[in-house]
């Protein structure tokens, strides 16, 4: 297992380099360092000298990927791509184009993102699995039928509708919680209630139907028929046998998502004014801040790879056959 983990981590290096290169290429296809300088300095009344000074201070005055003026390895190392990318593998994200330290911003914004994403993840997992088990238990009845109808209806509605509708109904009409904003300490709780509720509801349709499909597939297997033939109650069969053997596909969807919780929700944080990593990324895209965009893409790719490794490790905890192999 240790050799496998080390091998997977080594595979992550070329993947991260490739993702970094693709992000770099896509960004500079539509932008040039001169465009970035004008965006930060102001489009009107910007002198060429000011643009060159801005580029020099931030290291954008070098060639993008290949330097013809250099010799040897310097052709590749004395470039914007290498100098901006190499430091990130040591988690040195540098400064944003507006001068703020990116690592400090990530650390300060990680907690607000987790304050939304973690309750949505945990509460959603309990609600979705419980609802799916109930539909599987009452399969081929009105409970199952109307449950599927409700799931399809929830899936058909855009998440923006839930956000706008929830803000209008719960905040503006009923005045139960603030529409948007964020506070410190326990005061942040009243700002998180609505985003968490909307996050759970918006994901209920697709997740519940997926879990229901998993449970119904398990319920049609031989070991379930054998358990029923022995006279075990349906509730025991469902919770002790079906749920346990359905843990691998459940873990596949759950464990991979856990590292991505640190990156927050792009849409929810923007609409609710939460100062998390999601809104930080959206603001960086709007302001064409390549340093922040590059850092967030790199961090997201790294966390996703870690999630895949954690998924493989979790398989060995729930399935003894994988440990034997």
Layout of helices and strands:
Layout: H1 2-30, H2 33-41, H3 48-58, H4 74-77, H5 80-86, H6 102-137, H7 142-156, H8 159-173, H9 189-202, H10 204-219, H11 222-229, H12 234-245, H13 247-260, H14 266-272, H15 277-286, H16 290-318, H17 320-324
Helix pairs in contact: 1-16, 2-3, 6-7, 6-9, 6-10, 7-10, 8-9, 11-12, 13-16, 14-15, 15-16
Supply the number of structural domains: 2
* Largest sheet entry: none
Q: Which CATH class of the largest domain is shown?
A: Mainly Alpha
Tell me the Rg in angstroms. Answer: 25 Å
Distance between the termini: 11 Å
Q: Could you give the order of the helices and strands?
A: HHHHHHHHHHHHHHHHH
Strand content: under 5%
CATH topology of the largest domain: MetI-like fold
Helices, by number, come to 17
